[in-house]
Amino acid sequence: MSLEIDANVNVSPPSQSSTPLAVNEDVFDFAGLDEVEKFVERKHFLTDTFEYPRNGSDPGFVLIFNQENFENERDRVGTRRDVNEITECLQRQGFNIGKSNIIHNASPEEIKAKLKQVSEDENLKDCNSLIIFFLTHGKEKDKLLTYNSSLTTNDIWKNFINCRYLENKPKMFVFQACKGGSFSTTRKTFITNEPSEIVPSDTFSQTYLGPDMLIVYSTIEGNVSYRNSLTGTWFIQELCKNITGYGKRDDVFSIITRTTKCVCGNYFYHESGVNKKQMPVCMSTLSKKFYLNRNKDRALVLMSRNYYDDVLKHVKEIKESVDTLLT
């Protein structure tokens, strides 16, 4: 078992990992995904007034790009564990994920062609959201590595900025990759007098991001992102745990916040007297709450809240009537 990084920089990994052992990744087989019966969202459950509309019958379209093998870089051993956990946790939330939703070791041309195909698919009209994962090695300035080439994070989401089938729908893009060769530490991450670039500055240009988007990076600009060869990456594993635990109750932004806390607080390795850590980061142009699904648990909470609001309204009316009688 070893701890590795998702970058092409030459750094020495720690001798020990803070994550537990897991079964060998070769046991994971995605061949049976298409045999699962398609889930249809249950529209009779209540939704929050402040959340995105859920007019379609499909919770959302999921696409996973998994870059495991490279011509001139170390293979990303353990990434299949991440793919397995992403698939399982989202299926538990009602997402329909088949073999065609998982793309392994694609070239930039194949990736761009797949994204273009998806963005022009009329079936997106029936999807309430879009979620894309990209798991790979990375460099500074949002560069993502493929087998023998590279592309940028903007190449992943730009096809969906003006996608008419996803207008006014939430779109989430998750990048598990290094963004440099530096290490976060407790002091460096939270207490510093020097300005630091959390994400590349051109990310905030008017034409770079679109509306209703949530961009999630496993680490801040310039830093590495850790992957355990047996248990997967720190960030993806914690994200999947939190989706499984809170996906039926909390909105996605709250889940990302909780995941960031878990990665920062629960993971580190000690080397040369320093606790080296990882700091995820996200950017949002969401204008409403983004929930993964409709479900009975959240519907009951909303019913209770509505009942409570009705009670308060009647109490106020009674008080006003009593005040009128006493005057």
Question: How would you characterize this protein structure?
Answer:
This protein has 327 residues and is α/β, with parallel strands linked by helices. It folds into two domains: 292 residues, Rossmann fold, CATH 3.40.50; 33 residues. It contains seven helices and 15 strands. Strands 3-2-4-8-10-15 form a six-stranded mixed β-sheet. Helix 5 crosses helix 6. The longest helix has 31 residues. It starts with a strand and ends with a helix. About 6% of the residues have low confidence. Belongs to the peptidase C14A family. This is Caspase-3.
> How many domains comprise the coordinates?
2
Largest sheet: 6 strands, mixed
Going by CATH, the architecture of the largest domain would be: 3-Layer(aba) Sandwich
Trace the largest sheet across and list its strands: 3-2-4-8-10-15
Shape: globular
Distance between the termini: 79 Å
The low-pLDDT segments are: 9-27
Which class do the helix and strand fractions yield?
alpha/beta
Helix proportion range: 25-40%
The average pLDDT value, as a whole number, equals 84
Our count of helices gives: 7
> What string gives the helices and strands in order?
EEHEHEEEEHEEHEEEHHEEEH
- The CATH topology of the largest domain corresponds to Rossmann fold
For the record, the CATH class of the largest domain is: Alpha Beta
GO biological process, one term: proteolysis
Pfam families: Peptidase_C14
Family: Belongs to the peptidase C14A family.
GO molecular function, one term: cysteine-type endopeptidase activity
